[in-house]
Amino acid sequence: MRNFFRKRRGVDTPEHDAAAATIRPDAAGRGEARSDAAARATAAAAVAAARLTAPAAPSRLRPVPAAGPERRAPVAPALPPAAAAPPAGDAVDLPRFAFPVSSALKPQRGGEAALLTGLTPEVNGILREAFTPTRPKKQLNSLFVGRNATLKRIISAVEEERAHVILFGDRGRGKTSLSNAIEQIAAQAGYLAIKMTCSGELTFEDIFRHVLKRIPSTYYRSGSDSPFASRRTFNSFAELLPEGTFSVTELNDVLETIQNTHVLLILDEYDRVTDEDFRNKLAELFKNLTDSSIPMTLMVVGVAENLDQLLGKHPSIQRSLVPVHLPLMSDEEIERLIHAGAENAGLSFAADAVRRIADFARGLPYYAQLLGLHSARSAFSRGARDVGREDLAYAVSRCLQEAERGIVESYNRALAGRRRDTLEDVLHAAALCPADAYGAFDPADMTGPDGAAPGRDVAELLERLTGDDHGAVLVAMPEPGRIRYRFRNQMARQYVLMRIAEERGAI
After folding, report:
1. What architecture does CATH give domain 405-503?
2. Over the stretch 125-166, which tens digit does the pLDDT of each residue have?
3. Which of 32, 62, 122, 471 is buried deepest, with most CB atoms within 10 A?
4. CATH 3.40.50.300: does it fit domain 148-325?
5. How are beta strands 474-479 and 482-487 bridged, if at all?
């Protein structure tokens, strides 16, 4: 056991040191506040004058001009006087926004001048479009990579089986991007595709009033047998609903009058729905739509580990549903994702940097996009178009800084108490262990730094890591003849890999 989990503490590489220095400014570089008021005012005036008249200070990190006529060389925006002059006094030493509003910086492009220099709104915009960790893919273009098998399964369920679809999985796997793709593919085939985002504040009635507002009256089936035959003119199906609350039966009466189209309704982020009445009514609607000939198919998308967790226990409706558990991406898909973003941004990633990103991401597109974005920013800021290990080291440090507080706390609790070094090695081996498409691994597949099989007490240590005293970072999955494990928060696996790699200088 001790031999298997022996410590391999390494000295940080020069690249790692450079990245750390980039994101951890030396305290000596921060100006100390002066007690003399006159001196502070003089310093403020000098800083303001320098910002208005002097060119940007030289830096190790400089952008390079973009190739081709379509992209101009990044130019640092000029600060207007109102934005350039900082307040007098101690506020001179406070951090500043990288770009003023007058430079036409859009909110989603953000600034990183506090950490990197040489990045302009134009460069940030290009990189933000190429790598989108915080935004789902909205367009079917070269940046949408992989997921062909899952797309085929969903299309088959809707088109051939006329079944409703439940798409679920851990956060960061790309469920919303995939549902956006389904919406566009369905619309291209002539479906009336409508996508709604759920929340804890919206009721069942709120959601379906909004849905019916988007179904124009041109799809109304008139006739003497219609319950709304007396209605002569209306603009949308929402006008056929009664005022206030309505029952599922009343909603059904409205939906039955749809003709000459097929509605694909996508309810995204359904896990945010906490109202039990909403869940019960949706379950009833599932059953009614299946038992009738109403031309509407539902696709429910949410964070969950299984069907019951997302929809509740409604066994009567499960025969009409096709559950689709979104798997992790393959390493090949992750690498294609990075190359697609790099091509879009006019960059190239070194082969070993791409492989390392795939190693850290472990099939989670969120972390692949985040590492790609920060690595690209680092390369641009140092005047390069080739992303290498130095840039990846910076990206890992940024990801660790931005990690969820809950993941950080669970990690620290996991290693609390006695045998910290051994527990760290066990946790690291668990994160490195080959896993299935949904993140579950078998302890029998764990290996130590020297490739040896795990010792006898690894099972006891893994069990300890499932307890609250050690952060409950793992979840046991008992199966006939064995116990498999997975990380309770799938993103904790990537955090463990990146944190230990940085601490051991192994990036």
Report:
1. Orthogonal Bundle (1.10)
2. 888 888 887 766 666 666 677 788 999 999 999 998 889 999
3. 471
4. yes
5. antiparallel
